[in-house]
Design goal:
Length: about 160
DNA sequence: GCCAACGTTGGC
DNA sequence: GCCAACGTTGGC
């Protein structure tokens, strides 16, 4: 039996790489590499081809969810961990036992409008969303199905902010 | 620019 | 194994 499709959220600073940047790439696809946190890595490993991913803009004004991507390729060894010239180089990682993984993400569609972090905070039903937990810094997180649907619905309504 | 929260490192 | 110091994240 096929595994249930999961939903995710990844963070990116739009000044570095925005959702529009993703849509502008050939095949609208990029390698999601450089993740150097074990819990985030474990989530990357759980991602399955076709899983949908919210693309969150952090460290910008306002922060919020900009679009939807999908997993185009499941976890593989992150090449940057072996690249001395890359800022994500990890001398302790061995090619026969890579520590870090990357996935490929393909842009699917922008949300009708940005759903701001502040707006998410105002939804009682989203209180358990990992993004909203105090001190939450994980750059890769799961999103439960009800939360996913609610956020998509919010994006189709006018902001109440 | 500030700073709280968090993960990691390394001395002991 | 403890924990202080440090670096990073990311909202404000």
């Amino acid at each position: 039996m096929p595994a249930k499709r999961q939903h995710w959220l990844i963070k990116s600073e739009p000044d570095v790489f925005s959702f529009s940047d993703l849509l502008g790439l050939p095949q609208r696809t990029t390698t999601w590499d450089g993740v150097r946190n074990y819990q985030a890595r474990n989530y990357l490993r759980e991602m399955r081809r076709g899983d949908l991913v919210f693309f969150y803009h952090s460290s910008t004004e306002p922060p919020g969810i900009a679009g939807i991507a999908e997993v185009a390729r499941e976890a593989y060894a992150d090449p940057t961990q072996f690249d001395h010239a890359d800022e994500h180089f990890d001398a302790r990682s061995k090619p026969d036992a890579p520590t870090w993984v990357a996935v490929d993400l393909r842009g699917v569609e922008a949300l009708p409008r940005l759903v701001a972090l502040e707006e998410l905070r105002q939804e009682p039903a989203l209180a358990t969303l990992q993004l909203l937990q105090k001190g939450s810094r994980l750059s890769v997180q799961p999103v439960q199905e009800p939360a996913w649907r609610l956020i998509k619905a919010l994006s189709k309504r006018k902001s109440r902010l």
